[in-house]
Amino acid sequence: MDFDDPAVMRRLCVERLGPEAGRQFAAMARRGFRLVPASPEAPAAGRSRLGGPALLEPGTPWPVSAGVPLSLHAVLDTDALAEWLGDQLPTRPGLLNFFYLDPDVPYEEYRELDPYHPDAWRVVPADPARAVATTAPEPALRYPQRPVHAVEVTMLPDGWDLENDDLPYDKDRHWGAPSLVLDEMPDLNGNTAGHHCAFGWPDTSYTVSVTSRDDDGPAVHLLQLPEDAELGWGWGDAGTMYFTIPAGAFAAGDFSRAEAHGYCC
Fold first, then answer.
1. Which domains are assigned to the chain?
2. Cα separation values, 51 from 23, 145, 165, 218, Å
3. Number of other CB atoms surrounding residue 76 within 10 Å
4. Cβ distance 152 to 33 under 8 Å?
5. What is the reported pLDDT for 161?
6. Cα–Cα distance for residue pair 251/261, rounded to 1 Å
7. Which tens digits make up the pLDDT trace of 8-50?
8. What is the 3-state secondary structure (H, E, C) of 133-145?
9. Residues 6 or more apart from 229 whose CB is under 8 A from it?
10. Average pLDDT over residues 231-249
């Protein structure tokens, strides 16, 4: 769930989960954005967009998987997002280009490829002062460009992105911390499902977690891309693509370790 008012978020967490669990859950909140079409009243967040050409530094090779070029799905202008993210953006990566091996690439090109292989996705940073518009080579699909406005929100994790050690819970009533949140805050899940979002927490609306964990804690959510009929992409029945990165790699600015996971009904 996302909140325009963090104070309302904290109050609801305490009211529904109790003082201790509510405060701990509220402390897990992250700042993020809903990405909506830009307009004169809601200007684009810098050069952030869905679709369109990539914005790459001269000489940057177009990412491929087994020789087949990936499709460019989005660009985030982190300089335009930095003020709201604050210390949640530990480095200044500039522009982030999000690529994925499109399942709609012509079958003869696609049949030998593995969409779950680490080469099937890429997040490529670029210096905004040097980046130039770069058109995808064939047979990568080229999606229409949609500049996006970034709506600042505070997000809580999906119930399925919790682990039992995250929150105290009554073991006689709940099988784990996810059960506590799913039972007491059922309207939390699905709040941003079906919406393009950046940073914050992902919203799966599936009984799975897309946020891996390691010694540095939960992975950082970079981008959530549901199917979009107007842009012309999809990930299966009501599917969504999620880009994440280990927290340590994000702190170091190492986007080569970013991951992508797609889920559908």
1. 2-263 (2.30.320.10)
2. 39, 5, 39, 28
3. 30
4. yes
5. 87
6. 21
7. 899 999 999 999 999 999 999 999 999 999 999 999 999 999 9
8. EECCCCCCCCCCC
9. none
10. 88
CA 86/CA 31 separation, integer angstroms: 9
Amino acid at 80: A
40-73 residue pLDDT tens: 999 999 999 999 999 999 999 999 988 889 999 9
How far is 23 from 6, CA to CA, in rounded Å?
A: 12
Question: Reduced to 3 states, what is the DSSP secondary structure of residue 88?
Answer: helix
Query: Please, which residues have CB within 8 angstroms of residue 96's CB and are 6 or more apart in sequence?
Result: 75, 76, 78, 123, 124, 125, 126, 222, 255
Residue type, 131: A
Provide the token pair at 5: 């008012």
Nearest partner of 222 among 9, 17, 30, judged by Cα: 30
Q: What's the token pair of residue 56? A: 């790459």
Residues 154/173, Cβ–Cβ less than 8 Å: no
pTM of the model: 0.91
∠ CA(9), CA(15), CA(20), 5° rounding? 90
pLDDT at residue 109 tops 60: no
